[in-house]
Amino acid sequence: MSVWTDLRGQEPVVEQLQRASRSGAPTHAWLFTGPPGSGRSNAARAFAAALLCDRDVAERGCGTCKSCRTVLAGSHADLTNVTTEKVTITIDEARELVRKAQDKPSTGRWRVIIVEDADRMQERSTNVLLKAIEEPPPRTIWLLCAPSPGDVLVTIRSRCRSVSLRLPPVRDVADLLVHRDGIDPATAEAAARAAQSHIGVAKRLATDDGARERRNQIVRLPLTLRSVSGAMQAAADLVKLAEAEAQSSFEQRDASERAALLTALGAPESGTLPPSMRSQVKRLEEDQTRRAKRSKNDYFDRALTDLISFYRDVLMLQVSSGRDLVNEPLRPELEAFARRESAEDTLRRIDTINEVRERLVSTNVSPLLAIEAMAVGLLSRKDLAS
Q1: Is the distance from CB of 133 to CB of 18 less than 8 angstroms?
Q2: What is the pLDDT of residues 209-237, one digit of tens each?
Q3: Phi then psi for 349, rounded to 5 degrees?
Q4: Number of Cβ within a 10 Å radius of residue 161
Q5: What pTM did the predictor assign?
């Protein structure tokens, strides 16, 4: 199986990266951009595997040699893969990357450094990387990932070769779920459509009944908006659903990480922990708190994206035939909603949701207060007057 298997629907990108991996002197810094779900991190890892592949030039990226398998598993000696589950990548982490970049490759042709969340680096942290990317060691290649070029400082962006990905077609995502994960074709098709071609979300919807039900409830929320009091209740329900989705993803992991740390430290089964152990457990808990904050922000954004899909479908029905609806099972309700409202009202509602998405990312506003205001803004003028 080739390292490019997961990049279905991205043929121009695959061809670009294949040519570069077979070159004797590939560009030293790359910036992978694309919307969430486009597979920019998968593309970076596949490219890293092809760069370090053991096979001859024409077969690089085979996916079966030891180097390809260890790169994809994240354990290759010449690969550093940085991702963060916290809100930002710290300046200390950036300095460690610069130090790592100076090391010569130990087994492969290149030392490859992947930064999956380059958009989560603050300006101070990014400036630390600038010199290393401007004048890299001769055998080091940087692969940075971000949602868009504008999410990275222009001084970094100008020194990287750009790789732009798009969301793959629904049929390609469904085909990937069927062949890679063994999911039933009908379930894979429905999940890929509901996820709007986001591969990771599609897999979760296809394999997790709870996630699928929570999404269905979020998408149906506009159908319950009839009054200000109803909007307030809908906002509370949306916050509860998003928090439940986030909690389900990290609660068990937090507990297992704590247990693993205590075991590694040789902690007593009962009683008070020694001060040295308490400090390490506290650091873990602080990291978990930061991760939980990012996780909740991500799930709120996903919930609001699902909510937008309702109005996106309504708009499709208002301005065209509406052949390709994200929420096809809701077609009768969507058609009835579209007949009651104008396209201008629908666009206004989409803008209202996007404004809240931006506020939740860029400010410390309470999610409940922001979403309550949004829900009231989604009411029709008639409902507001009643």
Answers
A1: no
A2: 888 998 999 999 999 888 888 889 888 88
A3: -70, -40
A4: 13
A5: 0.73
Return d(Cα 171, Cα 338) in angstroms, integer: 27
- In angstroms and rounded to an integer, the radius of gyration of the C-alpha atoms of the chain is 23
Q: Work out the angle at residue 24's Cα, subtended by the Cα atoms of residues 21 and 26, and round it to the nearest 5 degrees.
A: 55
Is 284's pLDDT higher than 80?
Answer: no
List, for residues 26-82, the tens digit of each pLDDT value: 899 999 998 887 889 999 999 999 999 999 888 899 999 999 999 998 889 999 988
Contacts of 107 (CB under 8 A, 6+ apart): 67, 76, 77, 78
Query: How do residues 329-379 score in pLDDT, each as one tens digit?
Result: 999 999 999 998 899 999 999 999 999 998 887 777 888 899 999 999 998
Distance between CA atoms of 294 and 190, rounded to whole angstroms?
28
Point out the least confidently predicted range of 3-17, 83-97, 166-180, 336-350: 83-97
List the structure tokens of 308: 């937008």
CA–CA separation, 95 and 88 (whole Å): 14
275-319 helix and 331-340 helix, angle to the nearest 10 degrees: 70
Instruction: Map the chain to HEC letters.
Output: CCCCCCCCCCHHHHHHHHHHHCCCCCCCEEEEECCCCCCHHHHHHHHHHHHHCCCCHHHCCCCCCHHHHHHHHCCCCCEEEECCCCCCECHHHHHHHHHHHCCCCCCCCCEEEEECCHHHECHHHHHHHHHHHHCCCCCEEEEEEECCHHHCCHHHHCCCEEEECCCCCHHHHHHHHHHHHCCCHHHHHHHHHHCCCCHHHHHHHHHCHHHHHHHHHHHHHHHHCCCHHHHHHHHHHHHHHHHHHHHHHHHHHHHHHHHHHHHHHCCCCCCCCCHHHHHHHHHHHHHHHHHHHHHHHHHHHHHHHHHHHHHHHHHHHHHCCCCCCCCHHHHHHHHHHHHHCCHHHHHHHHHHHHHHHHHHHHCCCCHHHHHHHHHHHCCCHHHHHC
Q: Which two tokens stand for residue 109?
A: 């042709």
Query: Beta-carbon neighbour count of residue 368 at 10 Å?
Result: 15
Q: Count CB neighbours of 177 within 10 A.
A: 25
Q: Give CA–CA dist 297/300, Å, rounded.
A: 5
